Amino acid sequence: MPSQNSPIKVGILGATGTVGQRFIQLLAVHPYFTIHALGASSRSAGHEYSKIVKWKLGTEIPEHVKGMVVQECRPDANGFAECGVVFSGLDHDVAGEIEFAFRAAELVVFSNAKNYRRDPVVPLMVPLVNPSHLSVVNHQRTTLSPPTKKGYIVTNANCSTTGLVVPLYALEKAFGPLETVMVTTMQAISGAGYPGVSSLDIMDNVVPYIGSEEEKIEWETSKILGGVTSDGQGFDLHASDPIKISASCNRVPVIDGHTGCVSVKFKRHPPPSPEQVIQAFKDFRCEAQDLGVPSAPKRAIVYLDAPDRPQPRLDRDLENGACVSVGRVRPCPVLDVKFVCLIDNVRLGAATSSIMNAEIAVERGYIEA
Ligand SMILES: NC(=O)C1=CN([C@@H]2O[C@H](COP(=O)(O)OP(=O)(O)OC[C@H]3O[C@@H](n4cnc5c(N)ncnc54)[C@H](OP(=O)(O)O)[C@@H]3O)[C@@H](O)[C@H]2O)C=CC1
Ligand SMILES: N[C@@H](CC(=O)OP(=O)(O)O)C(=O)O
């Protein structure tokens, strides 16, 4: 952990957006990191943050951030050169090039964008599941061009993928590999950024399509649940036990919180009973909790006993939005067991995961204080 006197200076790319605002809220007071630079598009650059942002959170903009001048997202822009880390909430249209430039300039980049998630040397890291993937950044530093001494990129997952893989990981840890997963999501409008989905499209409605979302859930899950290859240079993508995954994604008129209805089939026969599955959810602990990093939730999975939970409005604030809540565990007449899961898509689904990934990187010595 960095000493009290020298918190690591961090920049936020996409600081004016939905995810960027959460970064600012969550990092306003943080034991390891201090906000030092803000970046956004040329539309926002040159303006004081409080004058240009359409702040949507129910807390005030932190006092020391209000007057900060938003910069262009370039490593040589004012403030970024002194940073060790940048958190990125950039639109995917621009994230690829910008994040790469910050890595090349020897910054450590924690990204929410999809651009590098499939890269064979970039960890796709859900902090409650696969922090072991972080070690591959050593290989990334030497093999990606340009090679770096300190800089690297770590991404976090799609928000719905994150809400799914936490309970799936708990099940694989307790009962061995899964064979089949079916998930139907009901995703909040904040997942589409700001201004996102038009109110005329989403009020009084359900939209049964979110572009590329199903493919992301189906692909990302295996990279996250898989391990690191034996040479330590990449990811095994769960190849020895392939999981069949089918996702159906829907946009619903909820502000924050993605819900998933999940059915799973286990490789093992007989499969665990619903009672055993519930116990596995209750017993689940992960490395972020053992390391005691500041953003780790006390309970990574919160099991809710009531027959009508979890619900986004009631349960998205559990553990400050840093857990996955689950409920309705019951037999599945088609596969083995089914349940419902809920994630705060902008906290654990985005900003909280990036921050927790960075905290783990600090604790493990992958970021110099
Ligand atoms: N919302 C969510 O629940 C989740 C989002 N993500 C991912 O996180 C990222 C951010 O999403 P979100 O916050 O919702 O999106 P928003 O649309 O709300 O914010 C986008 C941000 O990117 C900036 N930006 C846009 N164009 C440029 C440019 N040319 N140069 C520099 N900055 C630019 C915007 O700045 P400006 O205000 O100046 O236009 C803004 O700060 C995306 O990649 C998204 O896919 C991942 C998981 C969950
Ligand atoms: N597509 C997600 C949010 C998102 O931006 O996903 P990704 O980071 O995988 O592009 C949603 O609409 O809820």
Number of strands: 12
**Distance between the ends:** 8 Å
Strand pairing plus helix content: what structural class? Answer: alpha/beta
How many domains comprise the coordinates? 2
Order of strands in the sheet with most strands:
3-2-1-4-5-6
CATH topology of the largest domain: Dihydrodipicolinate Reductase, domain 2
CATH architecture of the largest domain: 2-Layer Sandwich
Which key terms come to mind for this protein?
alpha/beta; Rossmann fold; six-stranded mixed sheet; globular; NAD binding
Notes on the protein architecture:
The chain has 369 residues and is of the alpha/beta class. The protein folds into two domains: 8-158 and 351-363, NAD(P)-binding Rossmann-like Domain (Rossmann fold); 159-344, Dihydrodipicolinate Reductase, domain 2 (2-Layer Sandwich), CATH 3.30.360.10. It is built from twelve helices and twelve strands. It has helices at residues 18-27, 49-52, 63-66, 92-104, 137-143, 159-175, 199-202, 213-225, 274-283, 287-291, 312-315, 347-363, and strands spanning 8-13, 33-40, 71-72, 85-88, 108-111, 152-155, 178-187, 244-251, 258-266, 301-303, 324-331, 337-343. Strands 3-2-1-4-5-6 form a six-stranded parallel beta sheet, with helices on both faces. Helix 1 (18-27) links the parallel strand 1 and strand 2 (33-40). It is globular and about 60 Å long. It starts with 7 loop residues before the first strand and ends in a 6-residue tail after the last helix. The model has no long low-confidence stretch (mean pLDDT 97). NADPH dihydro-nicotinamide-adenine-dinucleotide phosphate is lined by residues 14-20, 40-41, 43-44, 73, 89-92, 94-95, 112-113, 159, 190-191, 193-194, 345-346, 349-350.
